[in-house]
Amino acid sequence: MGHGGDVIAELITDHExxxxxxxxxxxxxxxxxQRKKYADQAVIELVRHSVAEExxxxxxxREFLPDGDTVADKEIEDxxxxxxxxxxxxxxxxxxxxxxxxxxxxxxxxxxxxRDEEDNLFPRLRSAASEDELMKLGDQVRxxxxxxxxxxxxxxxxxxxxxxxxxxxxxxxxxxxxxVSGRGKG
Length: 186
Known about the structure:
Helices cover 78% and strands 0% of the residues. It is elongated, with a radius of gyration of 16 Å. It contains 6 helices and no strands.
């Protein structure tokens, strides 16, 4: 799928890509090893997406929306829940019955979060911010995703400035681990 455009278009494209991976997981029978590969790919995308939202989108939400602090705090808590689930899922194989429970839990959490963002947060942000601001945020999100971690780090900071300082280093370590292990590859 094509990435680019303003922050909302960028993040909706991410949502669609993750939903496609969820659909592939659901289409396969329990225990199929491909389910773990698709789950790993989804986790990689979700972590990068979450880091970019926490570093770029939520500070903008705090700035542009009158109740931005409350909205951003709720979104960050949603991310923390999903990150804990992703961390548990990391060490579970597709044949383990726990895999089905955890991937189901993750899909439910993410689908609820996506629905809330697309139905509520994004329309409000589009009304409150200029097109130039939204385009600039889209560029910032794309840059952040390039250096973001690819594995869940539930104990890492999720608000600026600490998250912006630590994410690139964690991202580099994660990408090295992924390259060595083959995680996230076709």
